[in-house]
User: What shape does this take?
Amino acid sequence: MAAAGTPDDDHKGARELAERVINGDWRALARAITKMENDSADAPTLAALLYPKTGHGHIIGVTGPPGSGKSTLVDGLTSVIRADGRSVGIIAVDPSSPFTGGAVLGDRVRMQRHAGDSGVFIRSMAARHNAGGLAPATRDVIRALDAFGRDVILVETVGVGQVELDIMKVADTVLVVTVPGLGDGVQTIKAGLLEIADCFVVNQSDRPGAAQTVADLRTMLTLGGAEERRRRWMPPIIQTVATSGKGLEELWAACQRHRLVLESDERMGRTRDRLRQEVLDAVARGIAADVNSRLAEDGEVETMINSVVRREIDPRTAAHKIVANHFRRERIRLPPVP
Amino acid sequence: MAAAGTPDDDHKGARELAERVINGDWRALARAITKMENDSADAPTLAALLYPKTGHGHIIGVTGPPGSGKSTLVDGLTSVIRADGRSVGIIAVDPSSPFTGGAVLGDRVRMQRHAGDSGVFIRSMAARHNAGGLAPATRDVIRALDAFGRDVILVETVGVGQVELDIMKVADTVLVVTVPGLGDGVQTIKAGLLEIADCFVVNQSDRPGAAQTVADLRTMLTLGGAEERRRRWMPPIIQTVATSGKGLEELWAACQRHRLVLESDERMGRTRDRLRQEVLDAVARGIAADVNSRLAEDGEVETMINSVVRREIDPRTAAHKIVANHFRRERIRLPPVP
Assistant: This one.
């Protein structure tokens, strides 16, 4: 919550930059993203100023195990979307990367492919995870592309861990990519991805075992719970060969169908749940920062920790006592609802 | 912090079970671990009762990319440690597994290998991650094995994500395993593991490229910062062939040397830092739970979220206002240090 500015602050630089982003200035967008990634002082102001202009872009998340060809798929899908006349923003998020910003190798390869096409904006970023979920920068960058006016924002993650799952929660449409014969391909998907997938992509489907992978996925979909949610939208399983472009038009059509379904019923609910969680997470972070700075100055806490080190009291009971002593006792009453 | 019991509670069952664990009752240990994994009501009491008997076991964490042969290494190392007359507890943690408890395939294979040796206790568990770090169950289970009297506790993780890093922070000695020719082997290690490794293991070192992998690791160690910490202990790089047992005695010797160094100077500091963090994390979780339940009943928060949904105010500013209105305004004063 550090320096959470409001549009009323005199951050004139941020205001100017935000206006340029909203007017489609490419260099301003790049600068704004860098500020967000570096957590610079006016990043929150910038995000606040861009936020009212968001909501237009179709955010498509692309995840799946390493080696499933996600990058090639994103590139191919981009060409199809461009041919359909929509502008594209691509964000490749690597939670394990120690590098922030700048172009990594994959970026340069892509830049060449879509070079000269101002309809494609590409950016790699390292997503740090913090207690309480996804680092705010990732969300801010996606929103910056939305405010910039991109019709479609493709968010690609490198792996399939908790961070990637959290990133996918930001997307309107989630594509889960796998390939035939990837040892624990379907097994990997089981862990959390099944619940969030809006569309399965069996990439490199010209390889042996493609039919089996499709059959496995279909079985999983049938067995998996969440039937309620599936009544309106059953995730299709689409076979692609990203390198040749096969299946990519069908995939784009599925993405568009999914968005129409979202628009017609659940999108508002989903958006609301997501935003509520985001606000509550930020509240929890703000309070935790507050609490930590207070506890850091509290001698009684150190005395308690000494007891834990001497194995006289266990950590959980110690925490329980600290909470009971310092917080619950003087329970804050919320003001009445107006 | 739900139902955080203290030894004063009348949880007689937990008290009996804890005594049996401390007295080395194998079946009691298995039952206690199941309770911890399932987050049953008396698990916190059980953990509190076992905690004073911990601190004896040497906790060795084993991590590294999939395919580096960690399981085979743990098996071989176990044989060496057993031959040295020490008892062993093995916990295989799979953060991505949806299964809790019970024996997975790897477990059964191992069970056979060390079958009939009461000096080896093996358990697989799924480690769920929550906001604020490692799920408490993992720590509790490691401590249960410690209180049970195991001389060495080997904690093996499946992957190399954030969860695995957090698990490794619980270990006294961290082994980072890699293999020659694993695509991004050294690259993977760069992401966070370099800082926490106490010993590097180049497994399957009879494969081509072993010397190169060792050289790469050495370069990384030389380039990496943290020189201060390395003055007392420079992580050795040990080549093993886990399947044949080559290098495993050397590895065990390195683990023991590392523990001696820990004992002599930094162990208390490390332990203290770790326990402080554990207590503060639990405090943060307790407060967050408290805050969430209060906010859930607060109509003003819903009004604020409505504004966010209508894009009138951004999520960060909304959170800032909630914190400012409801918490900072009535800032709790801590009682003076006694």
The two ends of chain B are 26 Å apart (CA to CA). Residues 275-329 of chain B form one domain. The CA atoms of residues 115 and 271 of chain B lie 34 Å apart.
